[in-house]
Amino acid sequence: MEDGFSSFWGPVTSTDRCEKNYVHSSYIAEFFNTISNVPGILLALIGLINALRQRFEKRFSVLHISNMILSIGSMLYHSTLQRVQQQGDETPMVWEMLLYFYILYSPDWHYRSTMPTFLFFYGVGFAVVHALLRFGIGFKVHYVILCLLCIPRMYKYYIFTKDASAKRLAKLYLATLLLGSICGLSDRVFCKQISHWYFNPQGHALWHVFMGFNSYFANTFLMFCRAQQREWDPKIVHFLGVLPYVKIQKPKSQ
Q: Secretion signal: which residues (predicted)?
């Protein structure tokens, strides 16, 4: 929310959220919207360590790294409220969805080289166009379409997965998505009313936190499903009895 003055980063040139600007620091425009990305970075780091330690396919390491890049880009955007940083947040969002699309659909794709080639050039083309043009609502529609394209495959994986713990991950994925969406939409739709409240519930910041967990649950579920396809005897175990992750047992031949 614009407060009518400049800061270290200059006037706001990006989309502004409901949080008041530069309340806690002249270097951080939206304090809560910035720090709320930290859980997503930490969860992605945990997922990356697990993927590397158990030698999962490189696609999952790249996926966790993309989650971290997205969260870092979001931090830069909300801390500066500059158009360039907003593009640095939105472009990785699309790249991440293309990566999810590849992980979900590539196991049954008969022409293996065509999908990654197409997705690569699609991602590069989008980055170039997005750097030149300001989409606004067009970006949101495009992003939602990419998300919707992934849902049928996620549902198929859920149906064919018999493990109760893995199914619970899918349910946590859906729950965090719904809760995060409610928080984010409420922050946008009711911003004028919220601005008059004594306490701002920081709906967009809560969206970041929920989506950090949402990405982690999605990644862990997909790692479990892929391990099943590779016959790696996957199990869902919990770090410190709380955070779920996939533990596999590869055949000695692998």
A: none
d(CA 19, CA 16): 8
CA–CA dist 184, 17 (Å, integer) = 10
What's the predicted TM-score (pTM) here? Answer: 0.92
204 annotated ligand binder: yes
**Closest to 224 measured CA to CA, from 196, 244, 201:** 244
Residue 20: helix, strand or coil by DSSP?
A: coil
21 is in an annotated binding site: yes
Q: Which of 47, 43, 103, 116 is nearest to 225 (CA)?
A: 103
Q: How far apart are CA 70 and CA 94, in angstroms?
A: 10
Q: Was 208 annotated as part of a binding site?
A: yes
Q: Are 203 and 184 spatial neighbours (Cβ–Cβ below 8 Å)? A: yes
- Quick: pLDDT tens for 66-98: 999 999 999 999 999 999 999 989 999 999 999
Pick from 93, 83, 82, 84: nearest CA to 37: 93
Q: What is the pLDDT of residues 127-175, one digit of tens each?
A: 999 988 888 788 889 999 999 999 999 999 999 999 999 999 999 999 9
- The rounded Cα 121 to chain-centroid distance in angstroms is 21
User: Does 78 carry a binding-site annotation?
Assistant: yes
Beta bridge pairs of residue 60? none
Judge whether 44 and 216 are in contact, CB under 8 Å.
yes
Q: Apex CA 183: angle with CA 136 and CA 91, to 5°?
A: 35
